[in-house]
Amino acid sequence: LSLFLVEKPVSQDHAFRFTQKHGGCIEGKAIPTIGYRGMHSYEVKFDNYFVPQNSLVGEEGGMGRGFYLQMDGFAAGRLQTAARANGLMHAALEKAISYANDRMIFGKKISEHPASSEKLSRMTGALLASRALTYYAAQNIEEEDGNILAAMAKLFASQTAEWLTREAQQIHGGMGYAEEFAVSRYFLDARVLSIFEGAEEVLAIKVIAPALLANSTYKGFGEHSRKETDV
Q: Residue 225 pLDDT more than 50?
């Protein structure tokens, strides 16, 4: 396998079709999704579409190395997915705190009810833990087990984002299900994070567990320099 960067004219539409002078064609359309609509996935078709040699990723050295280049890119992809999950959680937590401080129910603010304040406390702790793990993985991405750390961060942050955005909805009550409130979108957007860049089952079974089981002396964070003091 080899990787190519295939160029086409810019399009702002959810569907496109471009025909080259010699007749080659590329066309695609966005796949409808329940959330994460700010970044679409496209179904793309090529028909005799000409791609120049200088579009080969890695130039001549990249010939036949597409699989390995993709594997190298997964660590960065998983790391940035964890970062996105953290950003999503941060936004959801801010909305939940703001709504809890403004909305009155049974004669007092939602934030003054023990159940709500307990939720907010747990949400904050989960976000900070996820953020710390993601930062640690980023600091050690070039280490031997950087790919494992990125997978761990992605797995934990994505699962935590699903739970935290749900809690943010709960604090909003019925309005959390209304599209006019951002937390409804956050909940839907969080769902896909556990799927792309490696589904959580694949990360756990094929990436993380084999590395842990293959080395009975694996110490995780302790194997690296004390960069965690910078977090």
A: no
Give 147's strand partners.
none
pLDDT of residue 219: 54
Q: What is the DSSP string of the chain?
A: ---B--------SSEEEEE-TTS-EEEEEEPP-SS-TTS--EEEEEES----GGGBTTGGGGTT-HHHHHHHHHHHHHHHHHHHHHHHHHHHHHHHHHHHHH-EETTEEGGGSHHHHHHHHHHHHHHHHHHHHHHHHHHTTTSTTHHHHHHHHHHHHHHHHHHHHHHHHHHHGGGGGSTTSHHHHHHHHHHGGGTTTS-HHHIIIIIIHHHHHH-TT--GGGGS-SGGGG-
**Whole-prediction pTM:** 0.83
Q: Which residue bears the tokens 């190298």? A: 72
Instruction: Check 118, 197, 200, 201 and give the catalytic one.
Output: 197
Backbone angles phi, psi at 28, to 5 degrees: -160, 165
State how far the Cα of 192 lies from the Cα of 99, in Å rounded to an integer.
25
Q: Is 167 a catalytic residue?
A: no
